[in-house]
Amino acid sequence: MLATDPEGYLINLDDWSTEAANTLAQSAGIELTEAHWEVLFLLREFYTEYGISPATRPFVKAVALKLGKEKGNSVYLMTLFPESPAKLAAKLAGLPKPTNCM
Amino acid sequence: MHFAFLLRHPPYSKQHAREGLEAALAAAAFGQEVSLYFMGDGVLQLLPDQKATQLAAKDTSRMLQALDMYDIENVYVDRTSLQARGIAEDALAIKCTAVDSRQIRQQLATAQQVFCF
Amino acid sequence: MLHIINKATPDASLEQCLALIDPQQDAVLLVADGVLSALASYAYWPRGLAVFVLSRDIEARAINAYLAPHIQIIDDAGFVALTEQHTQSISW
């Protein structure tokens, strides 16, 4: 059993694994594909580098820088992580909720 | 909207430094124009090679590296505060423009809101 | 610019505030512990600078007789007027 807060974010960031991500994705009704994974790993790198979960704009910018413009846009990220990509992707990547994100 | 943030506290002194940066990042994330002014002990936030883990604290200097990602380009440091602490302008962890109080005063006058941390 | 100060001396905020003040245009409002920096013996705030204190903060501390002569005492209506005169404010 993964310990999560009421919103579904991991309480202990060290609990994250690809299995944990799959479990978290299932409860969000998402099947993780290659396209998801590259974004999740990128997010985890972002967190290691800057110590924060990015809000939408920097999230999109980081994806554009690393994976190219055709992926670094909110439409593409919205198809992978519906509704609120920055929040959902952070959740599946085992990161804290983006603090500067409504 | 142009929001100016005065960052006046040293790192790891309560949560001031972190809260100031988080507020600035949040404003930028909402597409506001943000300018940062490091002054007083706040200039110490800019020193490279901080080891926050020694204090089990969150590393605010890493957040500074994210300013680019948040499109925060207007980063200023008070020259007098640097000099008073014997810190050279080129010894800082991120690129910022050294300014004097008069320049800060003039620039703050163009901001819609000034936040003090 | 209206500079609002709520801390007692000595505090870095006061120095930093002084460094950024434009004496021609700006005003200072001292509230809560900030009023203590208005004592005449400190000679902290330069003459010619518009410095205001809230009357209730002065009365509560019974320091009226000790204030520097150029400090102006205002009530809540005066406070509101002050914020209307200055489009910007900084809470130090």
TrEMBL record, chain B:
Domain of life: Bacteria
Pfam family name, one: DsrE
InterPro entries associated with the record: DsrEFH-like (IPR027396), Sulphur_relay_DsrE/F-like (IPR003787), Sulphur_relay_TusC/DsrF (IPR017462)
Family as reported in the entry's similarity comment: Belongs to the DsrF/TusC family.
Database matches in NCBIfam families: PRK00211.1, sulf_tusC_dsrF
Protein name (database record): Sulfur relay protein TusC
Lineage: Bacteria, Pseudomonadati, Pseudomonadota, Gammaproteobacteria, Oceanospirillales
Automatic annotation (TrEMBL), chain C:
SUPFAM superfamilies per the UniProt record, alphabetical: DsrEFH-like
Name recorded for this polypeptide: Sulfur relay protein TusB
InterPro entries, per database record: DsrEFH-like (IPR027396), Sulphur_relay_TusB/DsrH (IPR007215)
NCBIfam families: sulf_tusB_dsrH
Biological source species: Pokkaliibacter plantistimulans
